[in-house]
Write a structure and sequence with these properties.
- The protein is an alpha+beta fold.
- It has 2 domains: 46-269, Cytochrome Bc1 Complex, Chain A, domain 1; 352-585, Cytochrome Bc1 Complex, Chain A, domain 1 (2-Layer Sandwich), CATH 3.30.830.
- It contains 16 helices and 16 strands.
- The protein has helices at residues 92-96, 109-119, 143-155, 161-179, 182-194, 216-226, 241-252, 320-323, 387-397, 415-421, 454-467, 479-496, 500-514, 520-528, 532-543, 576-585, and strands at 2-6, 51-55, 61-65, 71-78, 121-127, 132-139, 232-237, 304-309, 312-313, 317-318, 352-359, 371-378, 399-401, 427-436, 441-449, 558-564.
- The strands form 2 sheets. Strands 8, 9, 10, 11, 12, 13, 14, 15 and 16 form a 9-stranded mixed beta sheet that branches. A 7-stranded mixed beta sheet has the order 1-5-6-4-7-3-2, sandwiched between helices.
- A hairpin with a 4-residue loop joins strand 14 (427-436) and strand 15.
- It is globular and about 65 Å long.
- The chain starts with a strand and ends in a 6-residue tail after the last helix.
- Residues 61-208 form the Peptidase M16 N-terminal domain.
- It is found in: Mitochondrion matrix.
- Keywords: Mitochondrion, Transit peptide.
């Protein structure tokens, strides 16, 4: 993700205000005083009444939330991301956000940087599994200029071979760095194991051997596939709807709509690949310009996969077989490659086990050797009515690191703190996580512990999830902790939305997913109405492997493990069969 942050000093001179003084008795005199009051206080406006959504004739959707403030937010949200990639486009989502705000048809990269500096504010581009986001927060007076720059970098990028090569080299370094940090790579590998070989299991991080297959032609093919008006949402925070509509019509209204049976990727116009696997473009069409009518190297470790489908286990295989089929030695001619994209394909949850090579002991003896483990189950889609109960469960579990400064709002009374981190000295961290997508999701616990206690760590994680399903006993859900979790969830929701950028992303992503905006007030009402029975019912559904999503998942657990070589102790490998038996003993997942 590329982020530019610039600030400008704004000096405002306001009249001095003097405090009232009580005149001492010995100097009292007759004074004429008046009570200063506001004659007409502004009426309280429900922010949801300021939301408006329109669709241009070509399919571009425009969403606004005209809540006033010192800054405005502008975002372009595109239905793209690693979920939709096939073999030909694998890894492009990781690279394309790095090419944002570079040279365009109108100016070079230095001139673009100068334009961003003069604009002020915060500008970034980020890709995820289901969305590509260009966002900008700027002064209210600069909204028009911000939309122009966003349109320029989205619709008219030059994308030179030098720029592509530069970003590929940067990505190669970034890939090596991420693979060396378990806290960064393991969440990615959880998706790979959970959705083996499909949709949400596609790597968000570009496979390293794919870097030699990416060039300007492949980037243009990606853009021609996804940068279509019906896949674009423009969101505005702090801008009136009629003003936003005028800007979007000027800069995005001339993109031609795509017929349902038409899909031109640009790959059809590419020459054969060379021996090294490079694609050489002869001609690639691009969307019409927005301004035509305007005057103004370390190699990552190779883990092994045991993917479970129903009750069967497939043989061990190289991890990269599931990340990419585009190794250079297997490359073929571009026009002979099957190119089909089914944007409606549901994500199919498989579950499974992924074991990475052991980490070496820390070079500094004062640093502890730690084993990292993730346990996950398929959870609910973001559109599910039970998503609020699931979010409350995550808050209730909470968790964190073994050391925390504490304080109000830190979640020190959450279950993973009180039952795990405060009880076992061999636990370094233990945190609940929840990833929600349009048609599926992942819920689980990630933990780090001393290598000799891995079985006990997994057993403890299972115990905490199982306790959420109990209907009676000392470990079942209690009214006081449910109330606390609901309050924390509401507080987190409302405080995060104080940020203009969070408000903007919330608006854009909701319109992308739901086609409408669910107001914070409505969300808070839904959280308020949750009961202990609601949380217990959802916990039984998710942790029992009974979630019914469009992809008809297996219901099996997902486990990702990276152990660490301990200097002092040696023990047997923690095998998948043993892990399955342990999880099943707590009645978790479906076998």
């Amino acid at each position: 993700m590329r982020t530019y942050t610039f600030s400008k000093a704004v000096i405002r001179v306001s009249p001095l205000t003097y405090p009232s003084f009580v005149v001492p008795a010995f100097r009292s005199r007759s004074l004429s005083t008046k009570c200063i009051t506001r004659k007409n206080p502004p009426p309280t406006v429900d922010p949801s009444k300021l939301d408006e959504i329109s669709t241009l004739s070509n399919g571009v959707r425009v969403a606004t939330e005209a809540l006033p403030g010192h800054f405005s937010g502008i975002g372009v949200f595109i239905d793209a991301g690693s979920r939709f990639e096939n073999e030909e486009l694998r890894g492009i989502s990781h690279i394309i956000d790095r090419l944002a705000f570079k040279s365009t048809q109108r100016r070079n990269s230095d001139e673009m940087l100068q334009a961003l500096e003069s604009l002020g504010g915060n500008i970034n581009c980020a890709s995820s599994r289901e969305s590509l986001m260009y966002q900008c927060a700027t002064f209210n007076s600069a909204v028009s200029d911000a939309v122009a720059i966003l349109a320029e970098t989205i619709r008219d990028p030059l994308i030179t071979e030098n720029e592509v090569q530069e970003q590929l080299e940067t990505a190669a370094y970034e890939i090596g760095e991420i693979w060396s940090k378990p806290e960064l790579i393991l969440p990615e590998l959880v998706h790979t194991a959970a959705y083996k070989g499909n949709t949400l299991g596609n790597p968000l991080l570009c496979p390293k051997e794919r870097l030699t297959c990416i060039n300007k032609g492949v980037i243009e093919a990606y853009r021609n596939t996804f940068f279509r008006p019906e896949r674009i949402v423009l969101a505005f925070a702090g801008v009136k709807h009629h003003e936003a509509l005028k800007l979007v019509e000027n800069y995005f209204g001339d993109i031609p709509a795509l017929h349902k049976n038409q899909l031109n990727t640009g790959l059809e116009n590419l020459d054969n690949t060379s021996v090294s696997g490079q694609l050489n473009p002869t001609h690639v069409s691009s969307p019409p310009s927005a301004f035509n009518n305007l005057s103004s190297q370390t190699n990552p470790p190779v883990p092994s996969i045991l993917a479970q489908t129903s009750s069967k286990i497939t043989p061990r295989s190289t991890f990269y077989n599931y990340l990419s089929t585009w190794a250079a030695d297997n490359s073929t001619e571009a026009h002979n490659l099957p190119f089909s994209l089914d944007f409606s394909q549901p994500s199919h949850y498989t579950g499974g086990f992924l074991s990475l090579p052991n980490l070496p002991p820390p070079t500094n003896p004062s640093f502890p050797a730690l084993t990292h483990i993730h346990l996950a189950f398929e959870s609910l889609a973001v559109s599910s009515e039970d998503i609020y109960a699931l979010a409350t469960i995550q808050t209730l579990l909470g968790g964190g690191g073994s050391f925390s400064a504490g304080g109000p709002g830190k979640g020190m009374y959450s279950r993973l703190y009180t039952n795990v981190l405060n009880q076992y000295g061999w636990v370094e961290s233990c945190v609940a996580f929840n990833h929600s997508y349009t048609d599926s999701g992942l819920f689980g616990i990630s933990a780090s512990c001393v290598p000799a206690y891995v079985p006990q760590m997994l057993d403890t994680m299972c115990r905490e999830l199982h306790a959420l399903t109990l209907e009676n006993g000392p470990y079942c859900l209690q009214a006081i902790e449910v109330k606390r979790a609901k309050n924390q969830l509401r507080s987190s929701l409302l405080m995060n939305l104080e940020s203009r950028m969070v408000e903007l992303e919330d608006l854009g992503r909701q319109v992308q997913v739901h086609g409408k905006k669910i107001s914070p007030i409505e969300m808070c009402h839904k959280i308020d109405r949750l009961t202990i029975n609601d949380l217990r019912r959802v916990a039984k559904t998710v942790f029992g492997g009974m979630v019914k999503n469009p992809g008809c998942g297996s219901g099996a657990p997902t486990v990702v493990l990276q152990e660490c070589a301990d200097r002092e102790t040696t023990r047997k490998e923690f095998k998948w069969e043993t892990i399955q038996d342990l999880i099943a003993s707590w009645n978790l997942g479906r076998t």
